[in-house]
């Protein structure tokens, strides 16, 4: 029921930087959501971004309301963890996302590209995030199979 929140200093940014990050994050949002546990994807404390950037709703996965209060953007999406490796990998990924967002968000964004390519992840990082995403996909498929009733045989007529 808890999450990892990461605050990234954004106090020296311009409105253009903020809009660029929002645009970039919105474009790659679905790929970012694939990297976290399903319980976080439909969580009311880290909802998807709205159509327009807002500084009022702090319960977005990328929270711009923290900018006014703390001078940071806050990433609220990751599930709770005590694993230093998981948290460090998430922090690195989010730092790269914010940096890329400011740099590339002013350009035309093609969200059909892989987030991993856009962020220029190392091979080690790609292996880690791909395995994590695939595990969540596999777990969700297994869960759905358990929930669905077994097919019933067709009745035999005499």
Task: Pick out its properties.
single chain, mainly alpha, 3-stranded antiparallel beta sheet, about 50% helix
What is shown here, in short?
This protein has 158 residues and is mainly alpha-helical. The chain is 50% helix and 6% strand.
Judged by helices, strands and strand pairing, the structural class is mainly alpha
Describe the sheet with the most strands: 3 strands, antiparallel
How would you describe the shape? elongated
Give the fraction of residues assigned to helices.
Answer: 40-55%
H-E string: EHHEHEHHH
- Average of per-residue pLDDT values: 91
Note the total helix count: 6
Give the terminus-to-terminus CA distance.
55 Å
Low-confidence stretches: none
Strand order of the largest sheet: 1-3-2
Determine the strand fraction and express it as a percent band.
Answer: 5-15%
Could you tell me the radius of gyration in angstroms? 19 Å
Q: How many strands in all?
A: 3
Structure description:
The structure is a single chain. The chain is mostly helical. It contains 6 helices and 3 strands, in the order E-H-H-E-H-E-H-H-H. The longest helix has 25 residues, at 123-147. It is elongated and about 80 Å long. 21% of the residues are buried.
Indicate the topology:
Elements: E1 6-9, H1 15-33, H2 38-41, E2 62-63, H3 65-70, E3 72-75, H4 84-104, H5 115-118, H6 123-147
Antiparallel strand pairs: 1-3, 2-3
